[in-house]
Each structure stands twice: as C-alpha cells, then as structure tokens.
Design a protein that fits this description.
The chain is of the alpha+beta class. It has helices at about 60-65, 115-125, and strands spanning about 10-15, 20-25, 30-35, 85-90, 95, 100, 110, 125. The radius of gyration is 19 Å and the shape is extended. InterPro entries: MORN (IPR003409), Morn5 (IPR042814).
Length: about 140
Amino acid sequence: MKDGMYHGKGTLHFPLGNKFEGIWEKGIAVEGKYTFADGLKYNDEDWEYCDGYDRMFYTEICNGLKPAGRSQLTNLDPPREIPEGCYDCGDGFYNPQTRVIIDYKNTFLRNADDDEHEWIVRTCRKSWDEITGYKPKH
C-alpha cells in the first residue's frame, strides 16, 4: 500500500476462493492474472472456456464427460441444492419474491434491482423443474 492505494506486487483473495495476482501502480492493476477457485486461469487473449463452440465446465475438461444421460448442471458436481422457489445466481441464492440475494452461507449480500432480477430469472438455474419447448396459449 502507498498513500492508501494498492501499489506494487500482491495478491487479492476473494471470498469464494478466486484470486488475482498482480502489480498495481497508484491503485490501478497494470499487470496480473486471475485464477478461479477450481484452478482455471483466466486468459483474456485466447479465452476458450465455455464459448459458443465448447460449453463444457472446467471440471469436465479436467475429469472428462459423464456417461450419456448423466448431465453435469454446474461446474460444481454435484451442484448446490437451491432453496425452494429460488435461483442460483452464481454468488448466492436469489428469492424473486423478496428480491434478496443471500450467499451460500445464508448471509445477506444485496437486493436485486430490476435489471439483475430480469437477468437472473431469464438465465439462472432454478430450484424447480419446468417443461421447455412449445407452450400453447390456452
């Protein structure tokens, strides 16, 4: 630290186990690498993980695919059990009734605004099964 700002070489450790190792100048990271908790290293130039062509999870890349009929739903296998009526939004569980996000240890994280609510409902894994495909209007 220098003048209350990150300065020099160091490592930031995040609550879920991810880390950023880098070099800072006056509070700005000028060089560094990000590593996810499971060991996956982020590379901004040749990032191919979970792109449009390869949708495998990192644990599938490391450990191989499961037999046909036994899909892996998340990078964490087995996946977290989602509380009834909630969504798994990546850093915790989201209750669309209260619009509250709690972390995986049941500690309040934040209230979702309209944009985050819409994104979670549209894209995140939910606690209930839902039939997809054609739905008649009646």
